[in-house]
Amino acid sequence: MSKRLAFYFDSSSCSGCKTCQMACKDKNNLAVGQVWRRVYEVSGGGWHKQGNAWAQDVFAYNLSMSCNHCEDPICAKNCPTKALWKREDGIVQIDQNKCIGCQYCLWVCPYGAPQFNPETGTMGKCDLCADYIDEGKNPSCVDACPMRALDIGDYDELLQKHGSSDHIYPLPDDAITSPSICIKAHPKADQPNPSVGNLEEVKFAK
Amino acid sequence: MSLRNFLKPKFNTSGNMEFSLPFAHKLMASKPVKTAANAYTGKEKMIRVGCPSHNCGGRCLLRVHVRDGMITRIETDDRPNDTIADPQLRACIRGRSYRHRQHHKDRLKYPMKRTGERGSGKFERISWDEATDLVAGNIKRVREQYGNTSLYVPYGTGGYNQMGGKWSADRLMNMYGGALGYYNSYSWACITRATETVYGTDVTGNQRQDWLNSKFIIMWGWNPSEMRDGTNTEYILKEARKKGAKVICIDPRMTMSAVALADEWFAIRPGTDVAMMSAMAYVMITEGLYDAEFVKTHCMGFDKSQMPEAHKDEETYKDYILGTRDGQPKTPEWAEKLTTVPKQDIIRIAREYATAEAAVLYQGYGMQRRAYGEQVVRAGCVLAAITGNVGKSGGWASGIALQAGGGPFWNVLPLGENPVSAQIPTFLWSEAVVRGPELTEKEGLVGIDRLPHGIKMIWAVASNAIVNQHADINRSIEIIKDTSRLEFFVVQDNFMTVTAQFADLVLPACTQFETWGIEDGWKYGEELIIQPRIFEPPWETKSDFDICAAVAEKLGIGEAYTEGKDEKQWISELVEEYRQLRFPELPTLAELEEKNLGVYSRPVEKPRVAFRAFRENPEQNPLSTPSGKIEIFCEEMFSKQLPVEVPPIPKYIQEWESPFGKEAEQYPLQVIGTHFMPRVHSTLGNCEWNKEAFPQRVFINPIDAETRGLKNGQKVKVFNDRGTLILPCRVTKRILPGVVNIPQGAWWKPDKDGNDIGGSVNTLTSQRWTPFAFGNAQHTIMAEVTALEARADG
Q: Among B341, B677, B692, whose Cβ lies nearest the Cβ of A17?
């Protein structure tokens, strides 16, 4: 059994269609306002009038992200009731019986993964479809992607398979939590001054 | 918490629904839909079923999990071998969110009759007996009083399972003396007509797997990731890139496809694509890069040496490009002014396309839903021809590109023949209501010289194209409201759509999960997908077929209509036909159902190539055009004697609403209404998950926003002489300055002043049609955007 399950995300072929987000919402029955898997649209560059022409160096790419099931989960460290815990295979879970909905985890998580569910009064987040994992299946989002841009595997094996993991905007510093995510960057992810273009669609998290 | 408890609606003591949570309200506010004869009580069951795709370009497989009459979850194709030859048919957000639509609180439940004025929203519940009496009685009355040409079943794609939807009403009408017919569509009016003028056929596409043999692919106004032009189209393009194809995108927007699939994006001003195509031809001709041999042997009309005898002195394509007659060579400098694409980029793209060993120029459909949309289709086909990319592997003939070889496609319920030969262009139904008897061939009327009367009865089945999806909503409403013209208007649908709000009678159709259907590829694909009935129709809903059968009964042709068969039996026969004509290995419907297969697919190992035989020997295998060759010069277009609007060779024509016209002084921004990820046209426009994922916005460039003092998220007014809509804006660099996008399909919703706060782009569009195909030009709009209020709210 894997000791550190992780997502793989290929930003270079993600269109931003949000099928992963919808598959997650459907699987987890999430109300409007809770988006456990979110797709950030990043863009930058600009437009320059050049005689009659518009020259541009506009770029865009997407980042689909849920919970990164960090090796060093800051959410668990800060949970006053120990509701957050890490399974042997690396999945960070929330014990719904222990969670009091204090939202500390939301405040400390640099990825905005835990989200408050007003109906249950507790926190919820991606659990990597642990029930599916236990049945030997992939998480819902992985098998949903029309571009086959998502995968799951052991973190070290994913790193080996894909060479390395790229750190792309708007990800925070990996050193905070050691996230278990392996990313293939979009070729335009190296451009200067990127910003998130669809804030209203991803702001639920915080 | 268990799923059951979560789904359980809450009641307060007064018996009213309690909407404490937005989610409970949106998803499950109404009583859960209990099935009458529920086969799945208590235990969860999974059924493989075709996505009710509603004229989405995709045809995908869903695994629908059901318990106690409710969908608990929807997953997608899980067949183990996901190969390029036979890829999984993975559904997008439109399918994955579908339980919201299925169990929506606003589903129509009972037949309803209008009690106030048309459009007043006042209805009363009536019985099916009264409802079918009304439909049958009005069909009879209109037929007797005005003749069958005054009956009309309009274009509509809200039910699209090859069994229900409008097919079922067509069958009935055809059995009862017929109804006024239509040709072409809102989707493809110009591209189908114009492709035929070049190639004599619409079957101009190789199978998609052949893109893996291509070296250079141009996505020209084509955004398959978002419109979903065939399940897996984007995935096959991804694989083509892996094999070394360079992909570029030419589009006013940096589309989802541009982001995921293109090496480069070139922003082009809407409506000027022919200018850029012409400049590319200029580069190819002046630099000797075109395939002169192929042009000589396979084309007609390129230059003086190959003009038809009767037109030997007319302007040739080469004349036009070099400016021999009009004095304007179609240089990259000339095109730069019109398109905003830098001239060095035009030159580079022309060279790359012309010199690639095999290249694809794929035309999207948006640019042919414009003024003179015929021209861009023909111009694209001509580029494919003069670069010698027709009939070869890795190449692409362009045009509508229906998949080569092997039918049937779109095998639907047997419709019979329409005894009425008269047909109007789809887009001109509103003219046929207003001034039917005045229409002539100049308005595209065919099959009759003059209509005796206008349209008097419309039976819109699964169609929102009478108000929301037709152009110029305010004019459409004015037309529809006039009961002296349109005497009876019945709408049959799942929801109180914008169109249904104006009906005299609303009939509640069940969803596609509540009847039987099948689907094959929309445009591509080698599969047949079945749609077994998952639920019995709830409340008093009925399938389109059963509704039509009940009306047929009242008209005394009930038995002839059903032939004693129910939907499942009809589908079983259609499956059998597919087996005999296309898929010899296809299991029977019973087998497909029993094994819960959902889909039969045939791997595409050797993709078929359109026009291969013609390429190899054009003398022996001529095209079905008049000359047997690829017609750059079109004699039929010449015969129209409208040289400015319908030139016989493809030309750039300034649009009737244009940034170069006087109208731009008042309305300086071009508005386009693209397809949108969360919806299929207007279908799914009322589903909250989808709206959350992709809110309806006015997409505008920061430069245009700044000059108007607009901040991201601020509510704006978009207006022209036809209407005003109010929506928050999204300021994005991903759109060309001067262009605004308002994705089509949002549901029109008037405020007290008549402004549309639902954000339907058709509040702004025009009913003017294209001159040759009589198609909709709904993307040709000029408008202005201003701040509604000073405050930014998002």
A: B677
